[in-house]
C-alpha cells in the first residue's frame, strides 16, 4: 500500500505483478475500492498491475470540492507519472470506465489500450444523480446499500455469502466522497469523443447489469472504432467481482492480440 500526496489530499494505490511488465492501471467503480480487482491479481501477474482508490473511496482522501471526470482522469495520470509509467493499459469499470475514456480523450498518447467494463459515455442524467446525492445526504449509504447491490450483481452472486461483503463495502463508503463522484458523473458526457478513440479497446457488458444495461454498453462499443465487445452471461455491473476468471481471460486474450502496442 502506498500514498501519493496531491494538492487536494492523497491517493491510495497498490502495485502487483511484474515491475518490468506492461503497465495495467485499474480504475474502480462507484462505491468500491481497489479490492474489487482482487480476483484479477493472480491471472494478470505477468503484467505491472496498478490499482488505485479514486477520491473519497477506500483509503484515498475525500477532496473538499466535488471533482469532475477530468479531475479523476488527471488523478490516474498523476499516479502513472509518480510511477514513471509513460503509457498504460487502462481498465475501468462503471465510473472507472468513464475515467478511462476521459484519459483517452485528454491524453491519448498515454493509452496503450482500453478495457471498458460495464460503463457508457453518459451514465444517468443530471436529475437522476441529483436525486441520488439527495438520498445519500438524507438517508445515508447504509440504508441504500442493499438497493445498490441489487443493481450491481446478478441473482447467482446475490445468493452467495460473499455478497454480504460488498453490502458492507457500500455502507462504509465515505458519504461525501460517494456524492462527489455522483456529481462528477452528472456532469460527464463523453459521447462525442467516442469516435476519436484510437487505442485498441475491449468493451465488457454483463447480462444482468442493472446500472449500465448491456444494450447501453454495446451502444458505446459500436461508436468506438474497431472496439471488441463481449457479453458475460449471468454477470451484473461488476463482473470483476462476480466472474473474475472470465474477465481475466478476456483481458489477457485481448492484450495478447495487441502485443504490438
TrEMBL record:
InterPro entries for the chain: AB_hydrolase_1, AB_hydrolase_fold, AB_hydrolase_sf, Epox_hydrolase-like, PcaD/CatD
Cited SUPFAM superfamilies: alpha/beta-Hydrolases
Domain AB hydrolase-1: 24-249
Leader peptide range in chain numbering: none
Coiled-coil residue windows: none
PANTHER family associated with the record: MONOACYLGLYCEROL LIPASE (PTHR43798)
Stated name of the protein: 3-oxoadipate enol-lactonase
Organism: Thioclava sediminum
Amino acid at each position: 500500500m502506498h500514498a501519493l500526496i496531491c494538492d487536494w489530499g492523497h491517493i491510495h494505490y497498490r502495485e502487483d505483478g511484474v515491475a518490468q511488465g506492461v503497465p495495467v492501471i485499474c480504475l474502480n467503480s462507484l462505491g468500491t475500492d481497489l479490492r474489487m480487482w482482487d480476483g484479477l491479481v493472480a491471472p494478470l501477474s505477468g503484467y505491472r498491475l496498478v490499482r488505485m482508490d479514486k477520491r473519497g473511496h477506500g483509503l484515498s482522501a475525500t477532496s473538499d470540492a466535488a471533482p469532475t471526470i477530468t479531475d479523476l482522469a488527471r488523478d490516474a495520470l498523476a499516479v502513472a507519472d509518480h510511477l514513471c509509467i509513460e503509457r498504460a493499459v487502462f481498465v475501468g469499470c462503471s465510473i472507472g470506465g468513464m475515467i478511462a475514456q476521459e484519459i483517452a480523450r485528454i491524453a491519448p498518447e498515454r493509452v496503450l489500450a482500453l478495457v471498458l467494463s460495464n460503463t457508457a459515455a453518459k451514465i444517468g442524467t443530471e436529475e437522476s444523480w441529483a436525486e441520488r446525492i439527495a438520498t445519500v445526504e438524507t438517508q445515508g449509504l447504509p440504508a441504500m446499500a442493499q438497493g445498490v447491490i441489487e443493481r450491481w450483481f446478478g441473482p447467482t452472486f446475490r445468493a452467495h455469502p460473499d455478497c454480504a461483503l460488498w453490502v458492507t463495502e457500500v455502507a462504509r463508503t465515505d458519504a461525501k466522497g460517494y456524492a462527489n463522484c455522483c456529481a462528477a458523473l452528472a456532469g460527464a458526457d463523453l459521447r462525442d469523443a467516442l469516435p476519436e478513440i484510437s487505442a485498441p479497446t475491449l468493451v465488457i457488458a454483463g447480462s444482468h447489469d442493472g446500472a449500465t444495461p448491456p444494450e447501453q454498453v454495446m451502444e458505446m462499443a459500436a461508436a468506438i472504432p474497431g472496439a471488441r465487445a463481449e457479453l458475460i452471461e449471468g454477470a451484473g455491473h461488476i463482473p470483476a467481482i462476480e466472474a473474475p476468471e472470465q474477465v481475466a481471460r478476456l483481458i489477457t486474450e485481448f492484450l495478447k492480440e495487441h502485443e504490438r502496442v
